[in-house]
Write a structure and sequence with these properties.
Elements: H1 3-17, H2 22-40, H3 42-45, E1 48-52, E2 64-69, E3 76-80, H4 83-97, E4 118-125, E5 130-133, H5 138-141, H6 148-160, E6 165-167, H7 172-183, H8 187-193, H9 200-204, H10 217-237, E7 240-244, E8 249-250, H11 254-257, E9 263-265, E10 280-282, H12 288-304, E11 309-311, H13 325-342, E12 347-351, H14 353-357, H15 364-371, E13 379-383, H16 396-399, E14 403-407, H17 421-432, E15 439-444, H18 453-462, H19 472-484, H20 489-500, H21 534-546, H22 548-551, H23 555-585, H24 589-611, H25 619-628, H26 633-647, H27 667-689, H28 695-710, H29 724-741
Parallel strand pairs: 1-3, 5-6, 5-15, 6-7, 7-11, 11-12, 12-13, 13-14, 14-15
Antiparallel strand pairs: 2-3, 2-4, 8-10, 9-10
Helix pairs in contact: 2-4, 2-10, 6-10, 7-12, 12-13, 13-15, 17-18, 19-20, 20-21, 21-23, 21-29, 23-24, 23-29, 24-27, 24-29, 25-26, 27-28
Length: about 750
C-alpha cells in the first residue's frame, strides 16, 4: 500500500473525530476539574488550573497537553486539547513532578508542599490517534456487578491514563429485548435466549445463549441507568464510546416467527452442547439481515446517541459455515451495510482475535476477504494479542485497514504475576515503523483487570511515547518509589528481580493464563515448568518483607507484599506437587504422606489465611458484589450462582474448567483444597492397596466436590481478618529456610 494511501486512511479517522464546540471544551474542562476534586479533595484541587482548547492540537490533530506554572504561591496550569488530554497531562504532573501513583489496588497521593514548579513549559502530543481500553470479556470477568461508584472510579482512571476510545456495551440486552418483541418473539423466548450476567460477553459474541439466564427486568433497568451515566461521563471527558452493532447472530425463536428465514446453525463452542451454544447465524443475503441490523442500531442510538464507532464480532472463536472468500466478504459487508444504513458515518471496530484463534482457517484469502469488504478507513481492527503474536506482521498491516496495537496480557481475570514487559515496551514503536504501517493507536485489552498493575502502568505510558522506555530497570525502580511514596532499597531490588523473572516472558508461548497446579484439577500429568527462575520470586518475597517495617502503612505495599506471597505460595505448591508425584511414581509411601500432608494440611490453609487478611483477596467480597446487584433474595441467589460458576466450572459440566481461576480466601479453602485432599487420598489408597490410580474416577469424584462448592450457600466474610504483615512473616519463616537449605 502506498504511503499516500496510508496517510489518507489515517487522516479519515482523524477528521471523523475532529471538531467540537467551545461548549464542548468548557464541559470537558469542568469534567477534569471534577475528577481532580474527587481524586485529591477540593482544597488541593484548587491549586490547579485546568482548561481545554482544541487549538492546542491544531497542527497535528493529535491529543496534546501542556504543563506550566506551580511553585510557591503559583497554580499548576494544565491545558489539554481534549478533556482526556488534560487528564493525561494532570496525571503526568502528579506522577513525574509529585511522585504520586493512581492504581486499582490503592493510590498514593501525597503532594509536596509547595507544588513543584514546571521549570520549562512542557508540551506533549500522543503519537497516535487512539488509546483504547477493554475487551468484550472484561465486561463479564471484571465489570459485571459494578455499581455507579465503581464505574466512576474506573472512568477517572481511564481519563488519567489517557484512554480516549473504549467499549460502552452495558444495557444492550434491554435494547435487543425491544427489537425482538417488535419482531414478534415472546417474552419467554427472549428470556430463554439471554445468558446470565456473568456470561453476557459470550452471548454478545454469539458463542453462548441461555446459560446462566434469564435476565430479570430489574437487570435491564439498572443497566440502562448505568449506561446513560457511563456515556455521559465518557463524553464529558471527550472519550469516544464504542457502541455495539448487529453481528448476525439471532435467537432460534426467530425461525418460528419467520419460517422461511435463511439461517445456519454454527458449531458448538467451549465444549458446550447445543442447549447453550451452536448459535444461529443469519445469512448475509437474507432480507431480514438489514432489517434487524438497522432496527437495533436505530433503537440503540435513539436511546444513547452515538459517536459513530461500533463493535461487532461475527466469527469470534467460531468457524464460519464456509471458507469461500465470497461468503466471508458478503457476511462482513452485510454487518457494515446495516451500520451505515442508520449511521452513514459509522466506523466498525473489529476484534482481530478471530484471525489469531483459528489460523488454520483464516488463510491469506480469507483474511483479505474480510478486511477488503469494508471501505478503507471504515474498519478499525484491534490487533488484540500484539505483545505476543502480532497479526499486523502477517497481514501486511491488515491490508491497509487501520489497526490498534493492543496488549491483551490477561486471560480470565486470573491472579498470578505475569508480564512480557520487554515485548510491550518495544512493540508499539516497532509497529509504527513497520513498512506502510496503518497503526492508529495503542490499546489495553485484558480479559480481566485488577492485577499486575505495573504492566498496565507501562502500557498506558507508552500511549504517549514515540519511543520505548530506554531503561526498564530504572523505570520499574521509579514505579516502586511512586507506588509506595518513598524510595527503599529493598523494594527497588525486589522489583528488579520481578522484572527479570515473572515480568520477562518472551515468545509466542507467553500467555497471561494461570495454569499453576494450585488452581487446576490435579492429575499426575501437570506441567510445572515456568519461564523464570523461581528463586527470583522467593528472593523478591524476602526483600519486600524487609521493607515492611518502613512501608506497612502503604495500601499498595501491603497489596504487593500479599500478592508476591501468594505467588511464592503458588510456586511452593508446584514444588510440593513435584514431590508428591515423584514419591507416588517411586511407590514411596512415607515421602508421599510427608509431602502431601504439608501441601494439603499446612500450605494451602496458610495461603487461605493470609489471603483473608486483605479485602482485595476475599471470595466473600466477590460474591457480595453479585448479591448487591439484586433486588430480591431470589435474584441474589441467581447472581451468586453465576459468579460461583464463572470462577470454577464455568459451564454445567466443567466445560471450561478453572479458566477464570482466582486465588481468593474461601475459594482456596473450600474449592482448591478439597480437590487436593481427594487427590492425595486416592494416591495413598492406590499405593496402600496396590491398585492403579484411576484419573477418570478422580475426575468424577472431583466434579462432585466442585458442584458442591458451586451450589453451596455458605456466606463468606467480606471484611479482612488478621494482619497481613504478621501472617506473611509467619508463612515466610516456615518455608523460606527450607528453600535456602534445599530441603524442598
Amino acid at each position: 500500500m502506498e504511503a499516500a494511501a496510508v496517510a489518507a486512511v489515517l487522516g479519515f479517522l482523524l477528521l471523523a473525530a475532529a471538531g467540537g464546540s467551545a461548549g464542548d471544551e468548557a464541559r470537558e474542562a469542568a469534567a477534569v476539574r471534577a475528577l481532580l476534586a474527587r481524586l485529591l479533595g477540593p482544597g488541593p484541587a484548587a491549586a490547579f488550573s485546568v482548561s481545554v482548547e482544541r487549538a492546542l492540537a491544531a497542527e497535528s490533530g493529535l491529543d496534546t497537553y501542556r504543563l506550566s506554572g506551580g511553585g510557591a504561591g503559583a497554580r499548576v496550569r494544565v491545558l489539554g486539547s481534549t478533556g482526556v488530554a488534560a487528564a493525561a497531562g494532570l496525571h503526568r504532573y502528579l506522577r513525574d513532578f509529585c511522585g504520586c501513583h493512581v492504581a486499582w489496588s490503592g493510590s498514593q497521593l501525597r503532594l509536596p508542599e509547595p507544588l513543584p514548579a514546571v521549570q520549562e513549559e512542557l508540551t506533549e502530543a500522543t503519537p497516535n490517534r487512539y488509546r483504547y481500553y477493554q475487551n468484550v470479556c472484561t465486561h463479564s470477568y471484571s465489570f459485571v456487578w459494578w455499581d455507579w461508584a465503581r464505574w466512576e472510579w474506573e472512568l477517572d482512571w481511564m481519563a488519567l491514563n489517557g484512554i480516549n476510545l473504549a467499549l460502552a456495551w452495558s444495557g444492550q440486552e434491554a435494547i435487543w429485548q425491544r427489537v425482538y418483541l417488535a419482531l414478534g418473539l415472546t417474552q419467554s423466548e427472549i428470556d430463554e435466549y439471554f445468558t446470565g450476567p456473568a456470561f453476557l460477553a459470550w452471548g454478545r459474541m454469539g458463542n453462548l445463549h441461555t446459560w446462566g439466564g434469564p435476565l430479570p427486568r430489574s437487570w435491564h433497568l439498572k443497566q440502562l441507568y448505568l449506561q446513560h451515566r457511563i456515556l455521559d461521563r465518557m463524553r464529558s471527558f471527550g472519550m469516544i464510546p464504542v457502541l455495539p452493532a448487529f453481528a448476525g447472530h439471532v435467537p432460534k425463536a426467530l425461525t418460528r416467527v419467520f419460517p422461511q428465514v435463511n439461517v445456519t446453525q454454527l458449531g458448538s463452542w467451549g465444549h458446550f452442547n447445543c442447549s447453550y451454544s451452536c448459535s444461529f447465524l443469519l445469512a448475509p443475503e437474507d432480507p431480514l439481515f438489514p432489517i434487524i441490523g438497522s432496527l437495533f442500531l436505530r433503537e440503540l442510538t435513539k436511546e444513547f446517541g452515538t459517536d459513530h464507532i461500533y463493535g461487532a464480532d461475527t466469527f469470534n472463536e467460531m468457524q464460519p459455515p464456509s471458507s469461500e472468500p465470497s461468503y466471508l466478504a458478503a457476511a462482513t459487508a452485510s454487518v457494515y451495510q446495516a451500520m451505515i444504513t442508520v449511521d452513514p458515518d459509522a466506523v466498525w471496530l473489529l476484534q482481530g482475535w478471530l484471525f489469531q484463534h483459528q489460523p488454520q482457517f483464516w488463510g491469506p484469502a480469507q483474511v483479505r476477504a474480510v478486511l477488503g469488504a469494508v471501505p478503507r478507513g471504515r474498519l478499525l481492527v484491534l490487533d488484540l494479542f500484539a505483545e505476543s503474536q502480532p497479526m499486523y506482521v502477517r497481514t501486511a498491516s491488515f491490508h491497509g485497514q487501520p489497526f490498534i496495537w493492543c496488549m491483551l496480557h490477561n486471560f480470565g481475570g486470573n491472579h498470578g504475576l505475569f508480564g512480557a514487559l520487554e515485548a510491550v515496551n518495544r512493540g508499539p514503536a516497532a509497529a509504527r515503523l513497520f513498512p506502510n504501517s496503518t497503526m492508529a493507536g495503542t490499546g489495553m485489552a485484558p480479559e480481566g483487570i485488577g492485577q499486575n498493575e505495573v504492566v498496565y502502568a507501562l502500557m498506558a505510558e507508552l500511549g504517549w511515547r514515540k519511543d520505548p522506555v530506554a531503561d526498564l530497570e530504572a523505570w520499574v525502580t521509579g514505579f516502586a518509589t511512586r507506588r509506595y511514596g518513598v524510595a527503599h532499597k529493598g523494594t527497588e531490588a525486589a522489583w528488579r528481580l520481578l522484572l527479570r523473572s515473572v515480568y520477562n516472558c518472551s515468545g509466542e508461548a507467553c500467555s497471561g493464563h494461570n495454569r499453576s497446579p494450585l488452581v487446576r484439577r490435579p492429575s499426575l500429568r501437570m506441567v510445572t515448568t515456568v519461564w523464570y527462575n523461581r528463586s527470583d520470586v522467593f528472593e523478591a518475597w524476602r526483600l519486600l518483607l524487609t521493607a515492611a517495617p518502613a512501608l506497612a502503612a502503604s495500601p499498595a505495599f501491603r497489596y504487593d507484599l500479599l500478592d508476591v506471597t501468594r505467588q511464592a505460595a503458588q510456586e511452593l505448591v508446584s514444588l510440593h506437587y513435584g514431590e508428591v508425584r515423584t514419591a507416588y511414581l517411586n511407590k514411596e509411601l512415607v515421602p508421599l504422606l510427608r509431602a502431601a500432608g504439608t501441601l494439603v494440611y499446612e500450605l494451602l490453609p496458610a495461603l487461605d489465611t493470609v489471603l483473608a487478611s486483605d479485602r482485595r483477596f476475599l471470595l466473600g467480597g466477590w460474591l457480595e458484589q453479585a448479591r448487591a446487584a439484586a433486588i430480591s433474595e431470589a435474584e441474589a441467589r441467581v447472581y451468586e450462582l453465576n459468579s460461583r460458576y464463572q470462577l470454577t466450572l464455568w459451564g454445567p459440566e466443567g466445560n471450561i474448567l478453572d479458566y477464570a481461576n482466582k486465588q481468593l480466601a474461601g475459594l482456596v479453602a473450600d474449592y482448591y483444597t478439597p480437590r487436593w485432599e481427594l487427590f492425595v487420598d486416592m494416591l495413598v489408597t492406590s499405593l496402600v492397596q496396590g491398585i492403579p490410580f484411576q484419573q477418570h474416577q478422580f475426575d468424577e469424584n472431583a466434579f462432585w466436590l466442585e458442584q458442591t462448592f458451586v451450589f453451596g450457600t455458605r456466606r463468606y466474610p467480606s471484611q479482612p481478618q488478621g494482619d497481613t504483615v504478621d501472617l506473611v512473616k509467619k508463612l515466610f519463616l516456615k518455608y523460606y529456610p527450607r528453600l535456602v537449605a534445599g530441603s524442598l
